[in-house]
Amino acid sequence: MPTRRLFSSVRTSFSCVAVAVLAMALAGCESLAPSPGAAQAAAPGSAPAAVAKVEVLWLGQAAFKITSPGGKVVVTDPWLRTNPLTPAEFKTFENFRKIDALLVTHGHFDHIADAPALAQMYNVPIRAPGDLNNTVMTLGVLPAALLPRMNKGGTVEAAPGIKVTAVRAEHSSIYVWRNPATGKDETHPGGEAIGWIIELENGFRIYHAGDTAVFGDMKLIGERYKPDLALVPIGGNFTMDPADAAWAVKELIKPKAVIPMHYGANPLTRGTARQFTEAMGASAIRVIVATPGQALTF
What we know:
six-stranded mixed β-sheet; alpha/beta; 8 helices
């Protein structure tokens, strides 16, 4: 996704169309009711201790709050404060209450924007492409202790019982930083974009594809990690569109269930959940269209 400069260029449009965009996104989010016990609505921001299974909340774009059966909280790609789809509750960072693992797929503004603030508030390291973290450290945005380095193929325990593996994504990555001395934006290397395999304490596996086009090694990711749930971008323009995303899910990844993401928050990403569900057709893979802030349990 283009960087902070792009979002600055459309900030005025967002202020005028945010409500309309949200309505359009939700109109495309015609829920396909999951089977009993697979995905049930719960109150947004449920206390982690009350979670018996896996709880997934979509917070707009590629941001998710995932709560494990053991009460661990995993947050992905946190663009929250200026994201028109993020529920108001989660624009106040204290409402997360705790974060045990913080995952970022690449350096574009709509994926890393609020990661430094959350890392500082909850004293949790950012897991991200190693070269991106090196850039963030060199610029003095965060201390080295909050910026551990890893790369594609690496697996680490991001929190007790929570394993994450960095996998390939077909996308770009830069980091735009506003130099406090000049007041001007600077573009810095952001490493290579990645996706994440998130394995929870009970073995439940989530594939967060990040921003990506279709690529053949999605088949390898599907066969090697056998994800129970895939989170895939469908907006088009910067990522897969609904047709490509559905083809990748059905033919390559083959998860048990899929949630579309990365649509409805930017006028340039025009793909909709309706188009995605239609492209998925009669597939046996369960399609779950999330509403921002709605808790789904698995």
